[in-house]
Amino acid sequence: MQQRREPKYQVIATDLHARIRSGQYEPGTALPSQRELSASYGVTLVTLRQALAVLERDGLVSQQPGRGTFVTGTRAAYQLDSLRGFAEDLLDQGHTVGTEVLGQALRRTPREVAARLGLPPDGRALRVERIRLLSGRPAVHQVSWVFEPAAGQLADADLSGASLYAVVAGTGVAVRRATEVLRPGLLDAPTAALLRQDAGGAVFVSERVTYGPDDAPVILDRAVILGSAMEIRTERADAGVSVQWGRPPASRAS
Hints:
The chain is α+β, with helices and mostly antiparallel strands. The chain folds into two domains: about 10-70, Winged helix-like DNA-binding domain superfamily/Winged helix DNA-binding domain (Arc Repressor Mutant, subunit A, Orthogonal Bundle), CATH 1.10.10.10; about 75-235, Chorismate lyase-like (Chorismate lyase, 3-Layer(aba) Sandwich), CATH 3.40.1410. The chain has eight helices and ten strands.
């Protein structure tokens, strides 16, 4: 049976996608004009515009009438069906991931956190504040609380180049399950400054609680994820992950 040939516009879209991923066309820069691109690929403007439409649909470029076509960058996928941390998921997708540790110290567990998770009110936890960078650009602000027995063992651990989940596992504390809530939000001024963005931009706010085999909380993560840098992705199957949508709690008056 003769193999079906891929449409020319799709071949061009795939090639441009690869050039964007390789850094040949960096985020914020303009692609060559449509006439230049159509000539270099040896196709009509109609075919070239089909290829650009594919890239725009995938969020890689933005076509601005009268100005040109600009690279918006490659969005990373935040997997919902994994117990791994951000870094492990993103590294598996071929992204360059960096971490800036802003703070790491043992503290008394916040009263509201202890009450919500059923922890002793006088217990202690390790608070870790980090910025996650994708290809050198800040994309995620993350505050993690690691509870005992792992907290004391990690007070002086180097968390700049390793997954927090992997480091916790290295202490002998296993993780069994996690619950996670994702809500849309807007970037507040303090977090915007850390992520080098303007306040008010669209973000995802994730809160994940990871539990050990005895169902005791091991890690509480709160992450603010730039909507321009990440997309939420999951795969559904009859025995796979379940994604539930619900109304967020009503805002309390200040």
